[in-house]
Task: structure prediction
Amino acid sequence: MATYGVKTWRKVDFYEVIKTPKDQIIGLSFPRSDLNLGLEPSILSVLPDGDNVHYDMKNRDHNDCNVQLYLCSVYISGMEEFVSWAQRHDTSKIVVGGYHPTTFPEDFERYAFKIVQGPCDDIWGTIKQPGKVVKGIVNHKRVPRRDLYDIKYNQQIIPDKKPKDVVVSINTSQGCAMKPPCDFCCTPIMCPILLSRPLEAVEKEVRSLVQYKPKFLFIRDENFTMQKDWTERLQIIHGLLPKTKIYLFASANTLKEPALQEMAKQGVYMICLGLEDITVEYTKNRTLDQVVRWMKNNGIMTYLSFIVNPHKVIGREAGKDFYDKLMSRFHELAPEMVCGNFLMPFRGTALWDQYYAFVSPEDYKFYDSKTPFLIRNPIVREKMQFFMFWYQWKYYTSDFYNNNVRKFETGDTLHLRFLELYDQFSAKYQKIWNVRP
Result:
């Protein structure tokens, strides 16, 4: 046991240094893995082979003398946690990668000896490159180290998934080739081209998933159907996992009815489409209504992700107008699932210049899509969080949804998660509702 002081982000008095065997490679994700909502951490794709490799879900302190490397994946909201951890460790053994190091490498110069930009699955080839900031090397030769992680932790919030059902995920590509890119999207910054994995690499990874007998599989690609050979990729997955329900991201402009007929045959049960900010017209969504009708004709569920720009819902009238329009779209499209996200301005995106004056490093921990951090008034912020939840709850519990879409109270993870949120917001509601403004 060693004492290093009081950690600012965790209510403990001392740090316990883990008894680590010699020559270990430790993978860590910042923010810490969420056991309720997450899928396999992306760092599993970077961790090399070997019995000396471990993934630490708790981001604990290890004895630096016994560690070869710390491989750290850092997202914006995990920056504060990472800095607190890194200040207690040997910088010469820390390698960082992920979204934040890719976009803000200068923020990590004090805390790591190598800063990896962009996708990476060949860690040795990557860190052998000269310089402190290096481009990630991808060779498609390895599959993620799922042996270092308990797959039962995956509790995706989706229709029909019960808590004990196994869900796995796979990337068959990275990046997005949408031209021009969506003004809010950070994907082109992380990976500016569409980088498809070879079919043999996809097949190798899917074969590694068969042992888990998954009931659901999530294709994590930003826009799966943007790939010209997506049909072959889907056939590989469905051929090896014929009883597994597949869901994926796509955009309406890449979908036609014959494609949706093929997807239904190959086990796709749900497609996530970006409804985005309903006050903005996106080229990719001009055929959205027709595509959703085709999906329904072929028995494929619709999952709509929408964005709330907090600056557009300030005040009772503005908020009511926005959410009335959103609910109208829900009734027109009748999605089985909706998911709300507050606008998160990423540096380098088309809309960054409009919002950079509102963002400071103290806001990084709020890059979780569920916090309207562009609003400084805490009461207004809490009300906005409540209303985003409330309108989703109203949709799911409405007669329209239960009579025309599907039954909500099924005990699946979607239903259970919204019961949790209802309890959380009910307690907050009484506290904030009568407080001005």
Confidence is low (pLDDT under 50) at residues 1-14. Residues 154-432 form a domain with the pyruvate-formate lyase- activating enzyme fold (CATH 3.80.30.20). The chain has two domains: 17-135, 154-432.
